[in-house]
Amino acid sequence: MDEHTQPDPARPPEHHDPPGRGLTRRGALLGMAAVGGISAVNVGAFLWAGGWFTSENLSPSTFVDRFEQVYGHHDGFRRNHAKGLSASGTFTSNGAGVALSTAAVFQPGATPVTARFSLSGGMPTVADANATVRGLAVLFHLANGEQWRTAMVNIPVFLDRVPQGFYDRLLATKPVPATGQPDPAKLAAFLAKYPETARAMAVVKRTPPSSGLFNSPFHGLNAFWFTNAAGTTVPVRWSVLAEDPFVAASTGHAVGQDYLFDALIGRVARGSVRWRMVITIGEPDDPTNDATLAWPANRRQVEVGTLRIDSVSTEAPGNARDVNFDPLVLPSGIDASDDPLLAARSSVYAQSYQRRTREPHQPSAVNVAVVRR
Amino acid sequence: MNAETNSGQRFTAVARCLHWIMAVLVIAILFIGVFMVSSISDFHLLVTIHEPLGFAILIFALIRIGWRLRHTPPPWPPGMTRVDRLVAKYTERLLYALLVLQPLFGWALVSASGQPIVLFGSWYLPAIAPVNITVFAALLRAHIVAAYVLYFTFAAHLAGVLWHTLVVRDRALDRMAFWRARDRTLAPVEQP
């Protein structure tokens, strides 16, 4: 770069003022005060924007801290749905979705997917249990380079309407060491504050889980908008429904630490497992901002294709272990609704991802090689 | 040297435009960046603004460096000591380096996470780093460090210009200003 060519000024700065505009002591002090004041406001505003002075607010960081507070800190694992198994397969569209959305994934044909089966909670080595919420996350690799990421669960409604409710529930339902159950007083106070969660818990209780991961339905729960080529936008929720017949989970017998995952690994070893993808189209008055409320059962449903899982593998570098299933990674033709959980999930998942990617990684509890031996 | 540099003691009109456009963009992206990572509800929305904004800054920075290499800037304000000039010279270079590096860190870290980088609507940027979480973590760290270095370099630059304008009163700001420097064009050095 060119060097500046001005010769050295012969005199100290104050001698450069034009005649009649000499710098007074008062003027200099005012100037210094202005420089200091403007700089203080500048730096203060920046640090304020960064949340340095508002640490009591709910932030992605405090949310992830809460998971660590309840479940402990486990290097390298995601802070929720820590226990899991990577999978891969194909989504085959039947073309029916084209009428609903311009997303390329709904054009007739096949889209490769990376998927992950999981159990909710932040404990990567937790024992499988029928009542634990199960997850199926899917990343669709669209041919045009776009992606569609969705993380679904097996319960029919979500337990929380707002992020603060989820945050508070984590602590309110934390088991007390003495009883292994949540503190009844804390739970009661929490449910009084969030009646929608009490109602959702009752719905979940009435819905028995299936015997395995391979014959379980999985639901997106949060609402989205689909827009078709004509520009018509409709509210939707999606589910994948297992083709393997539903068998209710039996109760009362211990079947091993990882029985749900072991059975899935065994099932996939015998052949591909399929789920039908169903889009439910909401009516104008159906809530799009409250995942604790089911839409009426008579809403129109469109089967758009089949999700086929061909293989499962132990979590490892480069597979689903390394994917952040951010629900706001969407192809064009699908847009987020006003559900506040979606934005919260996006930010909190990002925070979890940022923490776990810089930590050393441990082998996952679910090990396909051990199960197949 | 072109006529503008000779007569007005100012940067060229193109350089001044680039400076002030980038000032707005860079201050905006720094505040958006530091705010979005602590926001539950606005993180995603702000990321969708942050990414194209960062790309725009990268393009502006490259144009600006190209312009800077082909045009001699106006003389330093006479109130600057030798140390002042060294600080100003290296601050300028550091800012140019950061304005190129920081968008590249951001672009690369999103690439390493495996997420598509939406520029606008269905326009995507290509990945510039392999999908790898270790690479992601390293780039994220670099992006955060560079963000704070960039911000505090900007804060120092602002304080320096204000100091010269309000305390030393050598009209340092006029070199980058759009207003006419009236009769206050730099007076000859006054001898005691």
Topology:
The complex is a heterodimer of chains A (373) and B (192).
Chain A lengths: L24 H25 L10 H12 L11 E11 L15 E11 L14 E8 L5 E7 L9 H10 L11 H10 L1 H11 L12 E2 L4 E4 L5 E10 L16 H12 L2 E9 L19 E13 L20 E3 L3 H18 L10 H5 L1
Antiparallel strand pairs in A: 1-2, 1-9, 2-3, 3-4, 5-7, 6-7, 6-10, 7-8, 8-9
Chain B lengths: L2 H6 L4 H24 L6 H28 L11 H32 L3 E4 L2 E3 L7 H36 L24
Antiparallel strand pairs in B: 1-2
- Strand and helix order of chain B: HHHHEEH
Give the CA-CA distance, first to last residue of chain B: 32 Å
Oligomer: heterodimer
- Mean pLDDT of chain B, to the nearest integer, reads 88
Count all strands of chain A and give the number.
Answer: 10
Largest interface here, residues on each chain?
Answer: A-B, 67 and 63 residues
Shape of chain B: elongated
Q: Helicity of chain B, in percent?
A: 55-70%
The main pleated sheet of chain B reads as: 2 strands, antiparallel
Strand order of the largest sheet of chain B: 1-2
Counted beta strands of chain B = 2
Please identify the structural class of chain A as seen in this structure. Answer: alpha+beta
Short description:
Chain A is an alpha+beta fold and 373 residues long. Helices cover 28% and strands 21% of the residues of chain A.
Key phrases:
heterodimer, A: 373 residues, alpha+beta, 10-stranded antiparallel beta sheet, 10 strands, 28% helix, disordered N terminus, B: 192 residues, mainly alpha, 2 strands, 66% helix
What can you see in these coordinates?
The complex is a heterodimer of chains A (373) and B (192). Chain A is an alpha+beta fold. Chain A has eight helices and ten strands. In chain A, strands 1, 2, 3, 4, 5, 6, 7, 8, 9 and 10 form a ten-stranded antiparallel β-sheet that branches. In chain A, helix 2 crosses helix 7. Chain B has helices at residues 3-8, 13-36, 43-70, 82-113, 133-168, and strands at residues 117-120, 123-125. Chains A and B meet through helix 1, helix 2 and helix 7 of A and helix 2, helix 3, helix 4 and helix 5 of B.
